[in-house]
Structures
1.
Amino acid sequence: MQARLEKQRLRAIFDLWLDHNTYENLPFTPLKEMAEIRFQVPITDTIVYCGAIDLLAQMKSTGHAVVVDIKTTRSMNRRWLRKWAMDTQVSGYVYAAKQHMPQVLGMIIGVIELPDPKVSKSKCKVHGVPYTECDLFHANFHWIGPILRSDAQLESWRRTMVQQARRYSSLHKKALDCKGKKGIENVLKLPQEGMFTEIEYVNSCVSCELSNFCEADRPTHMASNYLAHQPWFCFPEMIKDMPNPLAQGEPNA
Ligand code: SF4
Ligand SMILES: [Zn+2]
């Protein structure tokens, strides 16, 4: 367990976040019964887009309906904050929410920083006490957005997503049955494309859960040491089955 994720420390930081984000201080009004929405949105006859939306809400400043997403990160640096403006999850969740509530225009992201604990005994210039005493107050909180998505952007996301889903499906079939052979050894026939998507120091492999397996040159004879069998499951509820609180006029938060 990393020290920064120790249970008591997490609880203390989340308590601070709640103190900062009282109902009055939130930039939006939560919509009633619109928290933790698991959705499945049919995209084509064979592709269903699934996810879980933290919350739907209405911005206090503009009245826009938005998806609210809460994220944690070790370090809330400028590059990390900026990446969400062009993030595919933002487009996908706005697309999904819009199928249920057409008024949704974008997403607002609440960020909770969970940094490594400060161990230095030297005095903090901000708080005037040793860093070990003000450590928790160095966890930053921030709201990103709302990040808006136009209809054209959402349609572009949908088209790209369909292309990618078809590609992944064909790779999956290839891995299942390659030249008559069946089994895990077929993954060796698949390209390691994550290695080609480097953006400065961030690439797909760094955050990929298969990275240990790939780093070891995909030792298929020891696959069970690296990989866990986790069958994919589908969320049971359909977002379309949920009521649209904005359809009746005022939000009933
Ligand atoms: S670590 Fe992940 S992203 Fe990188 S090549 Fe392997 S499977 Fe692809
Ligand atoms: Zn301090």
2.
Amino acid sequence: MPATPGILFGKGATANVFEWNDNQVIKLYSKPNASELGEQELKAHAFAEKVNLPVPHLTGLTQWQKQPGLVMEKITGRPLWPYLNKHPLRLKKTARMLGRLQAGMHRIEANELPSLSARLKSLLEQFEPSGHPLQQEAHQLLQQQPEQLRLCHTDLNGSNILVTRSGKMYFIDWSTASAGPPLADLAFTLLKFFRSAQASKSWYEHQLLHLGQHLFLKHYLRAYRKTIPLGSQATWATLPNWITIVSAASFQQAAPGEHIRLRQLLRRYFL
Ligand SMILES: Nc1ncnc2c1ncn2[C@@H]1O[C@H](COP(=O)(O)OP(=O)(O)OP(=O)(O)O)[C@@H](O)[C@H]1O
Ligand SMILES: [Mg+2]
């Protein structure tokens, strides 16, 4: 074991990821509730590995200068969008792979993980300004949804999907994984993709990214639907409701009206 972590691999909201040795990284949690975060992520990541999802091989939790750190396999690859910038011709294959992998994850019962519905309920209670119509709408919609306890990553955004040069995909950052309804997790991913497309800087890049993301979404959602037996068309039709619920629950990162724009986009092209 090295005396100190090596180069910084990634800086996140909750942790910093450093090279630990030639084959491993260490994710050092920086928040005051670091131990709790570390334990939560350890449990969910170990579960995902046990059910053969594509995750870095986990070694376990350790301590460095009294900070808890999760040691795992180092993945030599790029996050999803930089990977596709480098390999644009792999867009369709990559989108389909993600759809299949995420749908496969959603077939797995994960009763031992924290409840996603409970977390969404508590996040909606914190909505500001309290009493806003969106808060009430989301709360009512949540109450109408049936309880499901499938494995949900809940933060499967471009930077938590690493792809190697040979095209192998890995899901990282299991800190908020939960047991919940598949379409709630799909809504988290769609919203995160939508936000990253909206946030791109230049007009030109924005257009390209938008077009690329529409194409990506088309292949991703098709592969997802083919893989998961969601049942009836009626179940699939609840996806826009989940967009509203998840957007309201993540109100601190949400742009005003984003759920309306994303719902329109989905209805127009994908539902
Ligand atoms: N096993 C790994 N191999 C290679 N790089 C990694 C690995 N794990 C994490 N990283 C890099 O570190 C970054 C941050 O990791 P991670 O997403 O787990 O931390 P985080 O603090 O939870 O991030 P955030 O809160 O911003 O989502 C990743 O985006 C990735 O670039
Ligand atoms: Mg992350």
3.
Amino acid sequence: MLLQNVALAVAGLCGLSAAASDGPQAVEKIEFTNVGFAGTYTPVVSIKNADSDDCSCSVGSKQWFYGSNAPISDAVSVHFRGPLKLNQFAFYNSSSFNLDNADNSSDWSRVAYFDASSQTAENAVFLTKAGKDSPVLGKALSFADSDGVSSSSSSQLLAEDTLITSDQEYVIYSNASCPKSGKKNSCGVYRSGIPAYHGYGGATKMFLFDFEMPTETQSNSSSFDYFDMPAIWLLNDQISRTSQYPTDANCSCWASGCGEFDIFEVMNGTEKNHLYSTFHTFQGIEDLGTGIQADGYINRDTSGSMKGGVIFDSNGNTVVFVSNSTSFDQTITPDSLNNIISRISDDESLSTKLATISASASSTTSKASDANSLFEKGTGALWFYAFTFVTSIAHTVLF
Ligand SMILES: *[C@@H]1O[C@H](CO)[C@@H](O)[C@H](O)[C@H]1NC(C)=O
Ligand SMILES: *[C@@H]1O[C@H](CO)[C@@H](O)[C@H](O)[C@H]1NC(C)=O
Ligand SMILES: *[C@@H]1O[C@H](CO)[C@@H](O)[C@H](O)[C@H]1NC(C)=O
Ligand SMILES: *[C@@H]1O[C@H](CO)[C@@H](O)[C@H](O)[C@H]1NC(C)=O
Ligand SMILES: *[C@@H]1O[C@H](CO)[C@@H](O)[C@H](O)[C@H]1NC(C)=O
Ligand SMILES: *[C@@H]1O[C@H](CO)[C@@H](O)[C@H](O)[C@H]1NC(C)=O
Ligand SMILES: *[C@@H]1O[C@H](CO)[C@@H](O)[C@H](O)[C@H]1NC(C)=O
């Protein structure tokens, strides 16, 4: 099978990444290049008996994605885990943005925004897992109350200075409602009874945050899954609408690789003040759970606020950064963004090249259903033909 071939190619090049690495280092900018590949995932097409022990799900035929940043080019939801305070959040898009080539870039437009201090939200809805519980699917999404984590019957804004604690989570979706659940509808099949919204789409996109990650004040115990391990991350927007933490992998498209990108994530208690960035996609790896992690981290400031975010440019460059110069203006020019990024010195930067997967999706009957995906039409009509694997996960620390 395809993935085994990719794994072999990666195994052959392990020496390269090990040789270049002298252990993770603290930086202010984490870059991934060559992001995006042609691949498939299987969407959930049915959820039966959602609320009982007999719950079962099935997945459909392979759905294709390709191009810059794929599959993160699909719509994504934005996830937060405590200990965390969110002061501002913004989502931007641009018709073209090339890092290091401002001449060939157009402005970024803010298309979603949340500001805790003025209690303003544009095109942003707070949801949380406080709905119906299921032994297989876990808790369903509900509207989040102003504390971020209780269930509400209608959309509410997160109150100013809301601190969510270890294990607590909320998620931001756009305010565009999904049509009814269905294989052929734009949000696919989702769990019944949830407030269902679209995520934030587009290949060229940017998410900015002003946030705090103070040290947990409760004491550690085995009742925590993620004690003092805050995170901000992106998931394919279908994942939470079906199930984020299912006991049956067919209840989410995650396991088939529909996409996750961790922007700022504490990985374990030993490194509780290190924020790592990770792609959980099949771009040259077999172990999706481990994913593709940069060999360095951004320091977690436990006493002040942090500003920064992630840029996915039009050429497959992903940059996670922190900078107190980050602004949340309605329009951000390519020059002003490039200034912030280029002001970060080389010894505060890290770059990781993702594997090149040359692949072609060949079909006479498939048609593009949207900019980023092809649907399989009938068995055998669409096939994945991988002919070269130039696989290098090269960790290059820039000096
Ligand atoms: C940016 O988002 C807005 C609102 O969703 C949309 O109308 C516009 O087409 C998007 N622009 C690009 C370049 O994707
Ligand atoms: C400018 O951007 C467009 C769209 O991303 C691309 O097709 C073109 O090759 C770029 N030109 C240069 C000079 O980089
Ligand atoms: C979504 O948010 C935008 C920006 O705040 C607003 O103009 C629009 O009316 C909202 N749409 C819905 C359905 O609430
Ligand atoms: C998940 O779906 C696959 C493919 O449809 C099937 O082979 C597998 O048995 C399913 N797993 C479970 C736990 O139902
Ligand atoms: C903690 O996470 C980092 C980053 O993934 C990893 O390098 C390190 O080995 C982990 N430490 C432990 C004790 O698991
Ligand atoms: C919390 O306890 C768990 C074991 O229950 C341990 O693995 C983890 O490192 C601890 N976290 C911290 C921050 O000490
Ligand atoms: C950024 O600002 C915060 C407080 O607003 C401060 O704690 C932090 O040290 C600043 N970071 C840098 C790199 O100057």
4.
Amino acid sequence: MNGKECKFCPTIIGWLKTQKGKWTAVEANPIKRMGSDPLPRGKYYTTFGELFDANDVPNGVDVYRSHWGDCPGAEKARKN
Ligand SMILES: [Zn+2]
């Protein structure tokens, strides 16, 4: 995924279309869950825009962590 620095913090983010057809900001580098350890808290999207909670992410699948959970600019971004 092509990343660009977030307007509000130094994280490199990209945009992904959710299954509801809305674009959402995610961390540009995908991660994979391996074994039964959950990923860091948050929401994750597959490349197809399928949404999973950290505890429910399937093993071995590339997922992108939703960025708005811990971005200091999330409030502002929502209002725009
Ligand atoms: Zn940010």
